[in-house]
Structure formats: C-alpha cells, structure tokens
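Objective 1.3, modelling of assemblies. Example input:
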Amino acid sequence: MKVLSVVGARPQFIKLAPVSRYLRTRHQEVLVHTGQHYDNNLSDIFFQQLHIPAPDYHLGVGSGPQGRQTGEMLIALEEIVAWERPDWVIVYGDTNSTLAGALVASKSHIPLLHIEAGLRSFNRRMPEEINRIVTDHLSTLLCCPTATAVANLAREGIVEGVHHTGDVMYDAVLHNADLARRESAILAELGCQPGGYVLVTVHRAENTDDPARLGGIVVALNALTEPVVLPLHPRTRKAAAQAGLAFGPGVRVIAPVSYLDMLALEMHARLILTDSGGVQKEAYFLGVPCVTLRDETEWVETVAAGWNVLVGTDAARIVEAARTFCPQGERPAYFGNGNAHRVIVELLDKGV
Ligand code: UD1
Ligand code: UDP
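Predicted structure (tokens):
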C-alpha cells in the first residue's frame, strides 16, 4: 500500500517518527514536508535525531498569514496527490499543514487518517481548533489518543471510523527517554542542577499576539526566584521584542533545543510552565508538575489527575502557582501503553 504522510511543524516530526518507522516495515511511505517550520532547530534537527528519512517532497511554504500559508500548501499538495495517487493520506495534530493535507485528501477522494483526532479546546479563536474540527469531519479513520477525544467526536456525531489508539507522543517518550538521559549534555552545558530550575515554553498565538498576555508571562518569569530555562520559539522572540518586553537576568533564554535535549530538560526540571500541548503531556508522562499558561486545555486528563493546573497569564497567579503547585498523586495511564503507533498502522493494514 502507498501511504502519503503530511507534516510541517515541530511536534508533527516527533509524532511522525514512531509511526513512520513501523509503517515502513510493511508499506510504502511518501513523506511530504510542507515547510511550515524551516529553521534548523525547528525542523532538520528532528529528522536527524529521530532518524526520519528525508522527505520525498519539500513544499518550502514557510511562514505567512493563515490563508496564504494554507493556500500555498493546498496548491502544491493537490499536484502531489494527483501524481502519487496514494491509497491513504495521514495527517497529524492540528496545524495548518494538517488542515491542508485533510482538504486535499478528501477532495481527491483519498481516504484520510487523522492521528490525534478528537481533541477540543472549545475555543474557536484558536486556529488549531478550526483545523481539528475540519480535519476530524473529513477523516475516514480517526485515531484518538484518549477516551475524552472519542467522547468529543461522538458529541459532534462522529462515531464511524473512530478508534481509541493511545497517544503516539507517549510512544515517542518511551522510545527516547533513556537515550536522552544517556546522551543529552544540555544540563551541563547550561550549568543547571537536576531539580534546580523551572523549564518554560511559550509559543501559542493567543499568548504571543496579545501584548497584555505576553506581558503577564514575562513579568511572572522575571519575578521567579529560581533559575528559569526558556527555549524560545522564534514567534515569541519576535513578539516580545516588538512589544518591548525584556527577560530579566534570572531567565536563561536559549534557542529551541533538539528533542533529546528537551526531554532531558523536562525530566530534570523542578517544574514546567508552558502553553504547549505536547509539553503538557510530556510533563505528565515524566512526572513533572506542570503549570499551564492558558485558560483551557485539550489535555484535560492531566488536570483531572492533579498534575497540571491552568493559570492563564496573570503574573500573580503564575508566580503563586509556581511557588505552591506540588502534585503527589497517581498518574493513570490515560494515554495508552506505548503501542499507539502499532495499533494505528495495524488499523491501516485492515483498512477499517
Ligand atoms: C504552529 C502551529 C501550532 C503548533 C506550533 C508548533 C498553526 C496554526 N500553528 O505554530 O499549532 O503548536 O506550530 O511549534 O499551524 N518562525 C520562524 N522559523 C520557523 C517557523 C516559524 O522564525 O522555522 C516564526 C515566523 O515568524 C512565523 C512564526 O514563527 O511567522 C509562526 O510560525 P507558524 O508556523 O505560522 O506558527 P507557529 O506559531 O509555529
Ligand atoms: N520541543 C523540542 N524543543 C523545544 C521545545 C519543544 O523538542 O525547544 C518538543 C517538545 O518536547 C514536544 C514538542 O516539541 O515534543 C511540542 O511542540 P510545540 O510546543 O512546538 O507544539 P504543540 O505541542 O503545542 O503543538
């Protein structure tokens, strides 16, 4: 069978890795990189470190407004799908690359498999929420990481082709955590002690594109009394500069890091502050308390289990949570058993 996989942004390379590795043992994969992310440390570094084969097509779309970025992907993808005539198209998550892949597959009458189906924030101001809703409604096979995702789809009337497979990001962490422990030298390079720093990531549009929200986050980080490590997404770097916001001396601002370095930073952090979906989950997998700089989350299980707390972007709330949030309870296996990639490929084998 010929399967065309469409990816374009950092978290999609990480999700792709375990699926692609297994998929290629039994099917032909044609890999398309839309070029949504293009900096070395948002793209190529993941292909090298996770041994993902080079893309068969690189669309080089780059950054731009939502419509233009998605539109350029549609134009290029339509031609590729017409030429390749794959049996299936696979898309991951909720980015503009996901949406473009989904639209082209369905309009070309190619069955579509969505990995990370059924997630909802119930906030339609997020571009990702629009991308997810449209993609799910176009998908033939919907691979849900959690039971909540299955229920979200049922509420929208989507029940056919829905499978509770577990989360491929959990598979990726299981596959790479020991490697990160052995091979990453990032703590030594930064002069950080295990348990002696707070790890922060911020890149969500609702935070970067609103100077008041970004300002709240920057004020909070500058007020923390522990060392802060901040691998900074270029979007946030640009937005902070534009808003005239400066990080204080206690905040170690570094370029985005590789996946193994990120896992090492996460597993040794005393606490994680983030607005990232993937980082919230990884904090949970690794048993690190997570304070989420958003008003809602798609990963409600992490909050229900008591390991994640939503604080928004009010500086005082963030500082208070960073000081006091100290979860201790169990972390139930809401995200599967590390076999999601196998379950997904085996569904494809059966064509169900
Ligand atoms: C995108 C996804 C988001 C995902 C994130 C993962 C959408 C709508 N958003 O957000 O869901 O969580 O990726 O990181 O698809 N930039 C660079 N170099 C790059 C890429 C981007 O400098 O290699 C800068 C550009 O200024 C660009 C900005 O970052 O305008 C935003 O990039 P974009 O891909 O549009 O969205 P992300 O915020 O990365
Ligand atoms: N990540 C990384 N280096 C970094 C920041 C994040 O490798 O400097 C990884 C992180 O471990 C997780 C994924 O990128 O696996 C999350 O991606 P991101 O936060 O960009 O997007 P989201 O998950 O919010 O869509």
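The pocket of uridine-5'-diphosphate (ligand 2) is lined by residues 10-11, 14, 201, 203, 231, 256-257, 259, 262, 276-279, 282 (CB under 6 Å).
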